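Subject: complex prediction, re-run

Hi both,

The earlier run crashed halfway through, so I resubmitted it with identical inputs.
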Amino acid sequence: MRATAVAPATGQGQETAGVAIGIDNVAVTFGGGAGKIRAIDNATLDVREGEFLTLIGHSGCGKSTLLRVVADIIDPTEGSVSILGGSPAAARKARLFSMVFQQSVLLPWATVLDNVRLPFRVGGGVRGGADAMDPMEALRLVQLEGFEKALPSELSGGMRQRVSIARALVTRPRILLMDEPFGALDELVRDALNVELLRIWKQSGMTIVFVTHSLHEAVFLSQRVVVMSRRPSRIADILEVELPEERGLELKDAPELGRQVARLRAMLDAG
Ligand SMILES: Nc1ncnc2c1ncn2[C@@H]1O[C@H](COP(=O)(O)OP(=O)(O)O)[C@@H](O)[C@H]1O
Ligand SMILES: [Mg+2]
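This time it finished cleanly. Structure:
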């Protein structure tokens, strides 16, 4: 049952109240003939507006594939996705979402500030209009003030990933899609960035869809964790995380976090 639609976000279709991303019976098959791979079998899921939702599952189960369908990078073989009432293509054109990958894809010859400004240069020049963020403000949000003139090669892995996040935020997207953004970082850096990401999420009111294979990271960050089964992947289960709203570093080692991780592990084993 769909609730009555409110204001259309994109001029295409109608926005369903409270739903940021509607994934409806999505299946993805790669290739044909004997080499055919059914990556996602049948995924249906509503991501609520303002929610922090994580997809988790074994390597190769289709997490990135599902995120790419949402991001309009690949088309589903079956089913459909709607983003704030419109198609993924319309959402991409309207810059309703940004994406962050595991490897920070920065231009090596451009300064930190120019890398953050990049979204205003590609795809139609000056789009730094009224609703965009000042690139310096984006750098402040990720605590990189003072590094605007540095080159990517002068930064640590964690700092480079912060630049990627600033670049994703600079268009003020309503949705942030993150595919294992901290997967290549060491644990201490990852912990610090987890806390920062939660702060940014709260300040911005964005919807975040996050992918990880770390159970601890999934539980620590999320309001809901969606468990994907092995290929061909289905949505096997959903964990409603029962942890306080305020989550600081100390929670990483707390027994209540451990209990949520154990519940999640049981769901993964059953899926
Ligand atoms: N472009 C592609 N062509 C063929 N197979 C692909 C392609 N992308 C992903 N796959 C396959 O689909 C499955 C899911 O991949 P992926 O979504 O990357 O998994 P995950 O992100 O969960 O590790 C894997 O078996 C992978 O090899
Ligand atoms: Mg992946």
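The pocket of magnesium ion (ligand 2) is lined by residues 63-64, 179 (CB under 6 Å).

- K.
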